[in-house]
Amino acid sequence: MTQTITTNNNKTTLAYAQQLDINDPLAIIREQFAIPKQANGEDEYYFTGNSLGLQPKLAREYVIELLDSWGQRGVKGHFEGDHPWMPYHEFLTEQSALLVGGKNEEVVMMNSLTTNLHLMMVSFYQPQGKRSKILLEDHAFPSDHYAVESQLKHHKKNVDDNMLLWTPRAGEELLNHDDLYQMIEHQGDEIALILLPGVQYYTGQVLDMKTITEKAHAKGILVGFDLAHAVGNIEMALHNWQVDFACWCSYKYLNSGAGSVAGCFVHQKHSTNTDSETQVNRFAGWWGHDKSSRFKMENTFKPIPTAEGWQLSNPPVLSLAAIRGSLDTIKMAGGIKELRKKSIKLTQYMTELISSELGDKIRIITPSNQAERGCQLSLMINVEGLDGKAMFTALEENGVTTDWREPNVIRVAPVPLYNKFQDIYHFVRLLKECLQ
Ligand SMILES: Cc1ncc(COP(=O)(O)O)c(C=O)c1O
Ligand SMILES: Nc1ccccc1C(=O)C[C@H](N)C(=O)O
User: Fold this and answer.
1) Is residue 143 in contact with ligand 1, taking CB distance under 6 Å?
2) Which of 368, 347, 363 is nearest to 421 (CA)?
3) What are 105-117's pLDDT values in tens digits?
4) What is the per-residue pLDDT across 123-172, written as a single tens digit (0 to 9) for each?
């Protein structure tokens, strides 16, 4: 396709995007990733790090290293080598804690996201008397809905009466925090748990986790966050915000491969009590048991007094190896602070280019304020007779990978670890051509 972008001002030229790439201190990190190719052999314009992140070369290297250790050592690999499997999850703790702003004692990589949501609700959804409701948002990722609904049923609670939904106002896509605060104010003593995303998967809206937690706690409500779209994307301070728990997956902005092991945060205030009568109840397994006596094979569960005390099984170490490779790559880039700096520039540039090149043909439903959005922009096609799904397909045929989410949004996420400013230039150019 020819380049049809107009050059009425500097920002709309390819040269401008090239200049941004030259001045980008993180540009070199792209080389640490495997970039999928188009049929013509050129790099894809990949914008779906919000669904599945690209493969870090270190992830591959560490997985192969682990396979070799298994091949060479057999069972002795649990205890031998540079990265023995027994404590393998511990190699991930420090970097994971930095990503969510938790203490090392508050973070553990284990299980999968929805599994962890369930385990956390077992511990932190304890309906008592009229305080029996769970508040979530109406458009929460379906898995979260199903998890909440099944937890209510598990407690023999009527779902319609006990699922409280925070819904955008009529005709709006974004959630209005004032509406949530009103619900907390007026129905707070009926709510046992608030479970919300850190970043909403459909609109890309960042929620004010700090204020939500404060307001909920003032009414005696526990708060958990699903950070699938937040971790590795925005900066967080879960410990200081006093968040009770959080769960996230590692295959989006954490680039650890499909279905890779997930993360979990449990605030210190809930884990230090190991008294068998008064400790926070949980579904327990041997990997959560005190490490020094784990192999004594005794029947009394003594939880590790940290988030690790919620582990069930010895983890799939091949997956942990991929996560370690990804976390080391993020560290190489300078951590989440540096990623966020570039991310803000990428989304800002994309917003400006869409606005100047496509005007009102595209409506960005993601908040325009930087504090309320991360990498992802959610686009609606605003042209009579053109449907978004067809546009998504046309982009795909031109080497642009985005994703389509029903009912009518194309999600694009320029990711600071591996996206170039030039990717954005080409995305807008091709979108413009597809729209014509
Ligand atoms: C917000 C959110 N919650 C839950 C899930 C489900 O995750 P998993 O399949 O890893 O349990 C996803 C992604 O698939 C998600 O984006
Ligand atoms: N794990 C997957 C497997 C297959 C297809 C999509 C996913 C996703 O992760 C979707 C993502 N959570 C989303 O925000 O849409």
Assistant:
1) yes
2) 347
3) 999 999 999 999 9
4) 999 999 999 999 999 999 999 999 999 999 999 999 999 999 999 999 99
Same domain, 189 and 243: yes
Structural domain of residue 19, as residue ranges? Answer: 10-50+336-435
Same domain flag for 268 and 151: yes
pLDDT of 382 reads 84
Q: For residue 56, which amino acid is it?
A: P
Rounded to whole angstroms, what are the CA distances from 321 to 56, 98, 114, 317, 417?
Answer: 11, 18, 21, 6, 19
Q: Where are the beta strands (DSSP E) in 11-100?
A: 33-34, 45-46, 55-56
**Partner residues linked to 373 by β-bridges:** 205
Q: Which residues of the chain are modeled with pLDDT < 50?
A: 1-8
Q: Is residue 368 part of an annotated ligand binding site?
A: no
Residue at which a domain ends, from 300, 330, 360: 330
State the total domains in the chain. Answer: 2
Query: Is 376 in the same domain as 394?
Result: yes
Ligand 2 centroid from CA 201, angstroms: 10
User: Which residue is closest in CA terms to ligand 2's atom 15?
Assistant: 51
For residues 208 and 96, state if they share a domain. Answer: yes
30 and 168, same domain (yes or no): no
Query: Could you tell me the distance, in angstroms and rounded to a whole number, from the CA of residue 30 to the centre of ligand 1?
Result: 26
Residue 59 lies in a domain: no
Residue 144 marked as a ligand binder? yes
